[in-house]
Amino acid sequence: MIDPSKPDLEESVNVTETHDRVVRGAAAAAREKKLKENGAEPVSLGVMLLCAVPLLSAGWALGNAGSLFSYKATLKDGYVRVIPSDGEATKLPAKSILEVYVSRGEKLYKTKCSGCHGPTGAGDGAQYPSLSGSEWVTGESERLAMIILNGLAGPTSTGKTYGVMPAQGIGMKAEDLAYLMTFVRNAFGNSSGDVVTQEMGTAAFEISGKRAKAGEAVNSAELAADHLKELPGEPADATLMVDPITLEPAEAK
Ligand code: HEC
């Protein structure tokens, strides 16, 4: 008969029992000296309580007293935020129509013209002429519009030929032409002081479309013969105060 507690007959020790003892011992040892990684040690109760103090007081301030995060305490007495239904709250301070056109035109100039004529409009004296002090910029508005919309094949206003300016009117809207023209006529030391209106911008596109050599750059002969005039349209009062977003005249308050 084999004794089940001594499966190995040639062993004098009880294998099953000894094995059990070894396993229990190892488990106990593991329990005794648990290794903790840095930062993973349990937090003591004292520290926990200490941390609870600011949290609880913040909670109290939020809930009961209601003052710490309440606008009631930080706003002045009698302040009432008015949100009128007619959108009045979104209106920006009025500006003169000249100022608004110039600032819109400046953005367009930066993307469309400054690559050649330079950020200060001074050109480079070799390939690109200066727009500062140019008679063709501040003079008759139809001439300037034709140069922008169709480009220019020299000579320029000073008699010098720089090259050929490519047409800039492609993809341009009538109002953009108006903003752009108003800007160059009132920037870089130029000060025509007038506004090229959107109506005039629209007229410029019509005149440009009816040119005999439509699609070709204008030249000084054509400019002198056909376009030495102001664009048709009601001149605007440059000092008119308008809403800078809607361009609606600002009502006197
Ligand atoms: C790709 C380069 C280039 C771009 C972009 C360009 N121009 Fe020109 N522009 C020229 C060149 C070159 C001339 C001179 C053409 C010539 O010699 O016939 C010129 C001439 C002019 C003139 C004539 C100046 C004078 O006194 O005779 C005006 C006005 C003008 N440009 C306005 C503009 C405006 C406004 C824009 C932006 C909408 C613009 N240009 C964009 C190259 C450019």
Question: Keywords, please?
Answer:
253 residues, mainly alpha, Cytochrome Bc1 Complex, Chain D, domain 2, 10 helices
Number of helices: 10
Bound molecules: heme C
Mean pLDDT: 88
Q: What is the fourth-level CATH superfamily of the domain at 95-242?
A: Cytochrome c-like domain
Q: Report strand %.
A: under 5%
| Shape estimate | elongated
Give the % helix: 40-55%
Write the layout of secondary structure elements.
Elements: H1 15-32, H2 45-65, H3 71-74, E1 95-96, H4 97-112, H5 114-117, H6 135-138, H7 141-150, E2 152-153, E3 164-165, H8 174-184, H9 198-209, E4 218-219, H10 220-226, E5 241-242
This protein binds heme C.
Heme C is lined by residues 112-113, 115-117, 127-129, 131, 134, 136-137, 144, 147-148, 152-154, 156-157, 161-166, 168, 180, 184.
Report what the structure shows.
It is a single chain. This protein has 253 residues and is mainly alpha-helical. The chain has a domain at 95-242: Cytochrome Bc1 Complex, Chain D, domain 2. The protein has helices at residues 15-32, 45-65, 71-74, 97-112, 114-117, 135-138, 141-150, 174-184, 198-209, 220-226, and strands spanning 95-96, 152-153, 164-165, 218-219, 241-242. The strands form two sheets. The protein has a three-stranded mixed β-sheet. Helix 8 crosses helix 9. The model has no long low-confidence stretch (mean pLDDT 88). Bound molecules: heme C. Heme C (HEC) binds at residues 112-113, 115-117, 127-129, 131, 134, 136-137, 144, 147-148, 152-154, 156-157, 161-166, 168, 180, 184.
